[in-house]
Amino acid sequence: MSALPGPAVLLDRDGTILAANQRAEPLALAVAQGRLACLDALLAQPGATSVESLQLATGGTLILDLVSIPAEGGQVILFGRDVTLERNLRAALVESRQRYKDLVEISSDFAWETGADGRFVFVSPKGALGFAADELVGRRPAEFVLQEENTHGPGPFDAVAPVEDIEVWMRQSDGQPLCLLASSTPIRGDGGEWRGARGVCRDVTQERLRDAALSRANNRERLLSYIVRTIRDEVDPADMLKAAAEATARALGATGCQIFRIQSEDSDFVLSADYGQFGDCRPVLDTFEASDHYDADLGEWRVLASVCRYRHSINGAVLLWRQMNRAAWSDDDRLLIDDVANQVGLAAEQITNHERMVKLSRTDGLTGLFNRRAFFEEIARRFHRLRREGRPAALIYVDLDNFKAVNDVHGHQTGDEALLAVRDLLLQHTRPIDLVARLGGDEFAIWLEAAEERIAVKRCQDLLEAAKGLDPYSGGADKPLGCSLGVAVHGGGDMESIEELIARADKAMYEVKRSGKGAWRIAPPTGGGEGA
User: Fold this and answer.
1) Fewer Cβ in 10 A, N or C end of the chain?
2) Can you tell me the distance from the alpha carbon of 167 to that of 190, in angstroms, rounded to the nearest whole number?
3) Within 10 Å of residue 10's Cβ, how many Cβ atoms?
4) C-alpha 171: how far from its chain's center?
5) For the segment 277-292, what is each residue's pLDDT rounded down to a tens digit?
6) What is the pTM for the complete model shown?
């Protein structure tokens, strides 16, 4: 008994311990304390076996595989074999298997195995791709595979070497694509022959769709930044929309782009910039009475358009044109044109404000005519061009007679009305290509584009005749409201400067004033005699 590797106890027929080896202490204690439930059966039937769990004083559990052997005089030897480790390992294995089974069944992933013929021989109970497990077993994975990424040679379902996290696009039962992340390992027989593969696939479709959406959003942001940067890089407001049209067409792959503005509440869309080729815009613009967007085929064109707004008010529109042999507009294009339209709306408002400031800086606040600075800047530009071309022009200085009496007698409001009447008179007797300005107070000026002396004389005669209509504004019969005209004609081939031309007209006008007013006088040419 001492030589045995396990516990051994010698008992008489009543179960009294007669002897025990060193390893039998827990067993002997259980017998002595009556905790061995199988003892009576082992004593009554020598050769019987039983497995018992014994609580140890240290708090653990000892599992013994017991057998009783008959001895002389009716005695019985009770042998035990420690099977604690074996039983614990078996329980752990059973528990592990059950845990794995539970995880597979509740997992959103699906496990699978293919056989030597490349067909599914196992699919986890939940099934996959919208199919039940038994609908997939016996079928080839290739029937459902749409695309495999980052693979060279066999894919995960016929892997000849371990593979991890390979993206596979597969077709679901409803025909929709599904992106799976697959990992697998080959199955080999005893001789090393390939007998299939087993692995697991995880559905990452939503992740990939989110990644794709984020990528598209980043791309839209990059394109929008390019367009906005192009607009802001333009120093001259007049070139902003032109740059925007080209940048937008390039960014969205359009054949052409048109940008329109609405410059006042009662005006229609006015083309402000365009780039590339395009069709008839009128049918598109007409739809903006009922809708902010246009997305349809128009003749041989695919058209995508959106109105521009500033503070909720429409102030323009962006039209994109793409030939019919090109791809249709995408959802990203539709989102991007709205962003572009918002930026163009801001740019259009900035341009409008700039034009308003320019107009205020170049026009007379009362009459709306050119002011002194703008008039002389413009005639200087025209003067140099006409001199290069050898064409004539005429400058007429207009000074009102007895205007102070109008203000003194009738007040400044009537004086303003008189100035507006003078404005209308001057505009009625000039052409669109001519320039009319209020130089300040009761002084006006007229630039007759490409006019020789004969035309200038006729204009003066007509103006003096029309000035008789200013009598109702006069301060009295002895002080009638009229005008004095001084004229300087540039012959085209003359070498005089613009300053000399202006001085001649001004001198001629003051000579009329000193001579009695209400007349006109032509300044003599440089170095010549006087004209009347």
Assistant:
1) C
2) 31
3) 18
4) 31
5) 999 999 999 999 899 9
6) 0.54
